[in-house]
Amino acid sequence: RYQLLPYNYTLSFLNHQRGLPLMRPLFFAEPANPALLADASSYFWGNDFLVHPVLQSGQQQAEIYFPKNGPWLDFHTGQRYAAGSRAAVSLQADRIPVFVRAGAWIPQAQGLQNTTQFDVSKLDLHYYYDEEQTLSEGMLYDDDGLTANAYESRAY
Prior knowledge:
Elements: H1 5-18, E1 23-24, E2 43-45, E3 49-51, E4 61-66, E5 72-74, E6 80-81, E7 85-90, E8 98-101, E9 105-109, E10 123-127
Antiparallel strand pairs: 1-2, 2-3, 3-8, 4-7, 5-6, 5-8, 9-10
């Protein structure tokens, strides 16, 4: 969780500024797809992560829908899944199925043990390359974490 602190802090900023939730339903990607209105099997974490929680003990495989705002890359293995597709994904006991939208820029912090150690000058910037993605953009919001109304007072 500490590695993703810069990503999550940016999501929190976007929540504050635009009201965008951190955890988002699949229909956010495809509002015209009625099948997704009741689909709670997966969710977005921000715009760039697709998470599929495992809710049954001993489950070996999951049928996962990969929304059309992909393609999607397995966060752990890099395996590619086409946008708008379904796939039976083998589950691992030591991790939750997490996928990253192709073309995403994910800032990650290095070696944190707590939030007070965060230093924006020590970031790893991960780009999830896919040859179909010819345009991509990202955002990183940072402030000192202490100043009230930092954005409004331009202290960011």
